[in-house]
Amino acid sequence: MVNIGFIGIGQMGTWMSTHLLEAGYEVTVYDTNQEASNALKAKGALVAASVAELGRKNEVVITMLPNSKIVESVVAGPGGLLGAMNAGTMIIDMSSSYVLSTEQLAKQAQAAGVTFIDAPVSGGVKGAKAGTLTIMVGAEEDAYMKALPILQRMGKAIKLVGKTGAGHALKAINNYLSAASMYATTEAMLLAKKLGINLEVALETINQSSGQSFSTHYKFPTFVLPRTFNSGFSLDLLLKDVKMVTAIAKDTKVPILLASIVEQIYEAASITGGKNQDHTEIIKFLEKLSDFSIED
Ligand code: NAD
């Protein structure tokens, strides 16, 4: 069994690295938040004092970090992985990162003799905890086969979707759809409420009709109606995904009209509602705009 390094022990990484430990891998973790690393130490992980130390001793390193800028600094910045890892090793970036940055990092890694592949995930904290994530891999076939046994410990539906970068591209596209559908559901539910329709009845009916989605089946009944807003996926991380879609559409000259509006909506919600919101709190933005709440 290869030794695995895991960088980014947050909402998702905590559970993903726990599954690797439970599968019997030797796992070394690193996070700028010492408390996060210590929680994994208690489960049997080793804790590295730096990214470079982690890179030197592991054959496979997984990153599960907030965004591409941070992935770039951890992989290719001063004291980063590429200056420390041995030739023939592999980095798997499971964060939701920007495709052009990923392609650039893969080139830099190749020059250092390291394989860099992308394997972002869908399924949220619930899927991370259960080990049932969908994993979208961008890689050459041989690198994919090498990573597969490790990925199978964290996910159920694992798909090779194209060459390096393709996983990150598809993940951003998926989350654009998810953001648009979440916001459309929010508008629809507010309108239904205004028209005097009970929202539990509305959701039950829609879930047997053509308007159904992951938002109507899962997010609304679980996090919005009870107003717990604890999906574990922040509004700013979702906004990051939508911004990646509008940026790549601009770079590739594809008109993507609705995505630009969705981006503006989540941007405004982020500004008015603050940095620490869950993405399901998008309803609060619309409630403020309309001076009406689904609780009324
Ligand atoms: P998070 O903010 O909970 O975790 C990120 C972790 O990275 C934190 O523990 C943070 O301390 C650590 N970190 C930040 N900078 C670092 C650095 N320079 N070196 C080492 N550690 C550093 O985020 P999350 O919700 O776990 O998401 C991680 C990634 O997964 C993101 O790219 C996100 O878009 C994606 N994602 C999240 C979800 C979800 O439901 N939360 C679902 C799918 C994909």
UniProtKB/TrEMBL annotation:
Domain 3-hydroxyisobutyrate dehydrogenase-like NAD-binding: 165-286
Family annotation (Gene3D superfamilies): N-(1-d-carboxylethyl)-l-norvaline Dehydrogenase, domain 2, NAD(P)-binding Rossmann-like Domain
Protein name as it appears in the record: 3-hydroxyisobutyrate dehydrogenase
Annotated catalytic residues: 171
Family indicated by similarity: Belongs to the HIBADH-related family.
Keyword annotations of the record: NAD, Oxidoreductase
InterPro entries given in the database record: 6-PGluconate_DH-like_C_sf, 6PGD_dom2, 6PGDH_NADP-bd, HIBADH-like_NADP-bd, HIBADH-related, NAD(P)-bd_dom_sf
Transmembrane intervals: none
GO molecular function: NAD binding; NADP binding; oxidoreductase activity, acting on the CH-OH group of donors, NAD or NADP as acceptor
Species for this entry: Effusibacillus dendaii
Gene name for this UniProt entry: mmsB
Top-level taxonomic group: Bacteria
SUPFAM superfamilies: 6-phosphogluconate dehydrogenase C-terminal domain-like (SSF48179), NAD(P)-binding Rossmann-fold domains (SSF51735)
Span of domain 6-phosphogluconate dehydrogenase NADP-binding: 3-162
